[in-house]
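Priority: medium. Attachment 1 of 2:
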């Protein structure tokens, strides 16, 4: 047993008995133009907020994911796919995190996304190896419009926060403006984050 397993075992042994439910979080309607957001507006408002955070909506005219990758990233070499719609250049689940440093484009499907912030949620189930979402040069995310929730309060009620070991919101690509006040994308992670609206098959 290594040190990590020893620490986790001791935490489990000393966990207080009984149920420990998460606090109840009320839901608030998301307002758009001073009125509650309607279901039919989710995609448009999400894409507006995605762009505000440096992300990009993919062209809606390209149904073939392989063709979409070629269109968006014509110079891409290694493409790591975690979706059945696209054959991967490598078996991500069998990779060590450091092996993914050579990935040009990672293609994944989001568990869900938040309209209010333009954020997508990824977990170990979507990524296979968590480092994929940070070491790839570009991230192409497939999102079913039915998996859009209006607000962060709505996101809290999703089951992913209860049944996944890892879950992270991604709001646009990696960015920093600390250096002379100049905005730089890709400083600590992916250089671009593109979201393609594609229903689950």
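Attachment 2 of 2:
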């Amino acid at each position: 047993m290594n040190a990590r397993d020893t620490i986790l075992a001791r935490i489990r042994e000393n966990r207080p008995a009984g149920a420990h439910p998460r606090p109840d979080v009320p839901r608030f309607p998301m307002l758009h133009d001073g009125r509650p957001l309607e279901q039919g507006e989710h995609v448009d408002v999400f894409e507006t907020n995605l762009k505000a955070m440096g992300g990009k909506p993919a062209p809606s005219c390209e149904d073939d994911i392989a063709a979409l990758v070629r269109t968006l990233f014509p110079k891409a070499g290694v493409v790591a796919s975690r979706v059945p719609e696209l054959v991967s250049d490598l078996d991500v689940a069998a990779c060590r995190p450091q092996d993914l440093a050579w990935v040009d484009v990672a293609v994944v499907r989001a568990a869900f996304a938040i309209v209010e912030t333009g954020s997508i949620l990824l977990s170990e189930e979507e990524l296979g190896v968590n480092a994929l979402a940070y070491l790839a040069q570009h991230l192409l995310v497939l999102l079913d419009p039915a998996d859009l929730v209006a607000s962060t309060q709505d996101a809290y009620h999703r089951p992913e926060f209860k049944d996944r070991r890892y879950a992270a919101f991604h709001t646009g690509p990696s960015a920093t403006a600390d250096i002379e006040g100049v905005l730089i994308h890709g400083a600590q992670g992916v250089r671009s984050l593109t979201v393609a609206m594609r229903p689950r098959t």
